[in-house]
Structures are given as structure tokens and as C-alpha cells.
């Protein structure tokens, strides 16, 4: 079986024959496809079982696919998946360009609850599809090409950032002579991070609404604020997933915790907000400063949406309400932390 063939369960049917089987009985109407995505489905393996393919269903019948693009969804159809791996971004973009609407599960923890509700005790690809079909549409979030492209770029930047931080931590445990060995590797990573940050900022100008207006309002223009603009792109990309400020604040963990209870939030997005606050405010800041900056960004974005893209005036209220403007830690032009030190570690 080659990787361009989609097989129906129990036989070897081509993608075209499955497309006829799906659409001919009822004509060309919008259909819903539910797919359990497997990261290793595109890999050539000697032995493959059902869990090594993308398993999808339409009208209650299951099929196997080696690639997401093999799913015979067309314009007007909807594709519901459990997750969208970064390595499969190109395939999902190709599906989106067909005119297919793509949705993914907002919280994978809902899978466990639905497994218990349906009384399913074994985890498998087919059972995952059953759970997907049982979930309400409110548990899914729609994505577009802009979100997928920006997410892939930001994940690459986080990987470089984590590698640099790992080398920095190891270098502290070495002697002065041994540290020189790692300095060249760290310098090479910093150059790649700068290149990747420039790409992210360039794409964010085109793909993230109100990004340019927020950059001007926060005063992070110029070469010295490249890392700050990258962090802003990371934060604003996550901001598109929320419809209320309270919901987004909770997503970042900006809420009081309780003793003995773990806080669950997106650590990578919170680290991006911390890097941005360090650049706009000062390196030594509090969670309250992060929340004030986040509220400011949220207000700027919503104002931009209300005026319909007319732009915002960069001379607005001070970013830090109630704090005096002074030279040390007020509203002034503080350069972003350089790539040679001071960046917080972000997780992917």
C-alpha cells in the first residue's frame, strides 16, 4: 500500500471510489467528517494496525487514510479532529484551501469524561472517533490557515528558545574553560532565534488582526524590540481563541490559586506574556503587571475591531494605571531583553 491510497475498512479502495461512495447516495451536500489523527500515519512502517492510520468516519462508516489530504472532504464539508499536530500543518492547510471547515477539540480532557459517559473502557482509534461524534459542537474550535501558519512558526521559535535555555543551564555547571565550548553553540542559536523572530513578526503583520496597532500603542517598534514583538504575536495568537477577557485571563493562569490545589493553564502562552511584560515594563515585574498589560492589549484589540480597522491612536492612556512615570520602572522606552540573556524559558 502506498501513502497516496485511502483504504476502506476491510478492502483496498482508492480515494476516488470512496468519494463516490460518500456523495452519490445523497448527492452533493455538506457532510461532517470525524477523524482520529495519528502522528505516525505518514511514516513508512513494515507493520501497521488501525492505530497507525488516520481513522475517519462519515455517515457511520469508518475508513482508513495515510494522509489527512486523502479524506474526501470537499467545499462545504466540515472536518472534526481530536488534535492538529504541528508536523501535519501543510496537510491541514491543503484541506482548508479546498473550502473545508476544520475544527479541533478545545480540551482533550473532555475525552476522558465522554469515555466514562459512554461506558467505553478501552482506548483505540475507532473509540476516539465515537467520542468525537458524541461531543457537542461547543467543545470544538475552528481554525484557519493564518492560525496554523503562525502556530508552526511560534513552535519553532519556542524550540530554539528552550534549546538555548537548556544550554545556558548546563553551562552554569561547567568550569570557565568548558563554558567556552558551549558559547559558540549558544551564539548560533541566538542568530537563528533572531531570524525566526523576524519571520514571525513579518507574518504577524499580515495574519493577526490589530497586531500593528498594538505594536505602535505599546511602543515596541524598532530593532531593539524584536523579541517583544515576537512575544506579542504569541500572546495575540492565543487571544483569538477566547471571546471574553475573563476566559483568556484564566487561560493564562492570571487568577488567585488555592493552597494545595494545582493551577492548570497554558504555560507557553504565560511565558510569552512574561517576556513581553519584561520588555514593555521592566525585567523585574509582578503578575499584576502582566495582567494590566494583558488587559491593555485586549482593549486595544477590541477597539480596533469596533472601529473596523480604522486604526488606533498610539497616544492613549498610560499602560500602567496608578504607577508614576519615572526613569527606572515607569512608562519609558525600555529595550527588550537581548537574546544573550534574560529570556524566560517557554514550553511547547
Write a concise synopsis of the structure shown.
This protein has about 350 residues and is of the alpha/beta class. It is built from eleven helices and seven strands.
Account of the 3D structure:
The protein folds into 2 domains: 7-143, no CATH class; 147-306, no CATH class. Helices cover 46% and strands 9% of the residues. It has helices at 15-23, 89-97, 109-118, 125-134, 145-172, 176-207, 211-218, 226-239, 245-251, 267-280, 287-306, and strands at residues 7-8, 32-36, 54-58, 61-65, 78-81, 101-105, 140-143. A 7-stranded mixed β-sheet has the order 1-4-3-2-5-6-7, with helices on both faces. The protein is globular. Residues 172-199 form a coiled coil. Keywords: Coiled coil.
List its traits.
348 residues; alpha/beta; 2 domains; 7-stranded mixed beta sheet; 11 helices; 7 strands; 46% helix; disordered N terminus; coiled coil
Query: What distance separates the N and C termini?
Result: 34 Å
What assembly state would you assign to the polypeptide chains in this entry? single chain
Q: Strand-residue fraction? A: 5-15%
CA-based gyration radius: 23 Å
Counting DSSP E segments of at least 2 residues, the number of strands comes to 7
Low-confidence runs (pLDDT<50, min 5 residues)? Answer: 1-12, 309-348
Shape: globular
Largest sheet: 7 strands, mixed
Order of helices and strands: EHEEEEHEHHEHHHHHHH
Number of domains: 2
**How much helix is in the residues?**
40-55%
